[in-house]
Design brief:
Blueprint (H helix, E strand, L loop, with lengths): L1 H20 L11 H18 L5 E8 L5 H17 L3 E2 L8 E9 L3 E8 L8 E8 L11
Parallel strand pairs: 1-2, 1-3
Antiparallel strand pairs: 3-4, 4-5
Helix pairs in contact: 2-3
Length: 145
Amino acid sequence: MRATRRVLFLLLAILILMLLFAVPGVSLADTPDSSLAAASRQLADKIAAALPPREAIFLDLRNLSSMSGLEVAEVRRTLESELQSRGLQLVPRSAAPSAEVRLTLSETPDGFLWVVEVPRAPADAPQVEMVSLPKSRGSGTAPRA
């Protein structure tokens, strides 16, 4: 029963993300650098709070947004740095990490939405956390949890 609910939740999330992906967006380069850094810090806080200290993790990053490859690489570098500063160890998938954290970069009409899935006990659904940030410089808002 839990597996069915999880599959339905993931299918619904994928459908919503696909619909949002069809909306033309603007580049992350239009957002203030501080928004990207603040969003990465906020997400790193949430991931670190959900995992034991010094956990060896693999970060699986998927881009479903209009962000370029260079922007996605910057998000990865920033987030990995923030996670390491909180004591988590990033390892390749081949090193058999104790947890695989999945980050999906998507967007809404108002801004970017980052969704992270942090594994819990094998029988439980993953913990899902979200951080949003605006697309344009004019909004000047901080990331929202």
